[in-house]
């Protein structure tokens, strides 16, 4: 069992908290989940791994509920302090969930979805395969969704083609090259 029955109640409650935080997070969490499942299936992962990715993707930005909407919805660039606060959301989210959920693989997705393949991510600066596979998957679809939707700091989203180019340009630096390539192939073939 991925999540014990009595823990599911708490997880559902956390999902409601995300949905109520702001409109972007509500849609983002759902889209990231759908894309992450699609990519995990494309990569041939097991049903168990796919279920872990499903919950991890739905909850990946849980920590943002502790960040003020004034920062999350700020139209311009973030100042250093605001960015430092944003960079802590993987830690906030893990802290909120860890006492309620004894599934390390799901918690790892929340902790590590902003790590980068080259070690320049946040908050732990893990690199390469130190970053769990599921977090590497969520990191790519998370970036793709952020690029292709309207954001407070960028009114005109990237086209799908531009977003895929951006992901391929960052394959091997920000993203795991193999997974990034597989994702772009899958999206291109769907269109
Ligand atoms: Fe995030």
CATH superfamily: Hypothetical protein af1432
CATH architecture: Orthogonal Bundle
Mean pLDDT: 96
What structural class should be given to the helix and strand makeup? mainly alpha
CATH topology: Hypothetical protein af1432
Largest sheet geometry: none
Helix fraction?
55-70%
Tell me the number of structural domains. 1
Beta strand %: under 5%
Indicate the radius of gyration in whole angstroms: 16 Å
What is the H/E order? HHHHHHHHHH
- Termini gap: 35 Å
Q: What is the 3D shape?
A: globular
CATH top level assignment: Mainly Alpha
How many β-strand runs?
A: 0
Work out the helix count.
10
Show unreliable segments: none
The set of bound ligands, ions and cofactors reads: fe (ii) ion
Domain HD-GYP: 3-191
Domain HD: 25-147
InterPro entries: HD/PDEase_dom, HD_domain, HD_GYP_dom, HDIG_dom
Protein name: HD domain-containing protein
């Amino acid at each position: 069992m991925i999540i014990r029955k009595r823990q599911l109640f708490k997880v559902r409650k956390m999902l409601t908290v995300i949905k109520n935080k702001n409109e972007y997070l509500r849609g983002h969490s759902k889209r990231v989940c759908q894309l992450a499942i699609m990519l995990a299936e494309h990569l041939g992962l097991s049903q168990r791994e796919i279920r872990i990715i499903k919950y991890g993707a739905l909850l990946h930005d849980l920590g943002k509920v502790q960040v003020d909407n004034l920062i999350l919805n700020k139209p311009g660039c973030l100042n250093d302090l605001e960015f430092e606060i944003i960079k802590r959301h993987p830690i906030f989210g893990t802290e909120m969930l860890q006492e309620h959920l004894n599934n390390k693989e799901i918690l790892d997705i929340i902790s590590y979805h902003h790590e980068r393949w080259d070690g320049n991510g946040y908050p732990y600066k893990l690199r390469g395969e130190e970053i769990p596979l599921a977090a590497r998957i969520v990191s790519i679809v998370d970036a793709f969704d952020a690029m292709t939707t309207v954001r407070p700091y960028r009114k005109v989203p990237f086209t799908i083609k531009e977003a895929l180019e951006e992901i391929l340009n960052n394959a091997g630096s920000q993203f795991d090259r193999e997974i990034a390539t597989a994702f772009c192939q899958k999206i291109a073939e769907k269109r």
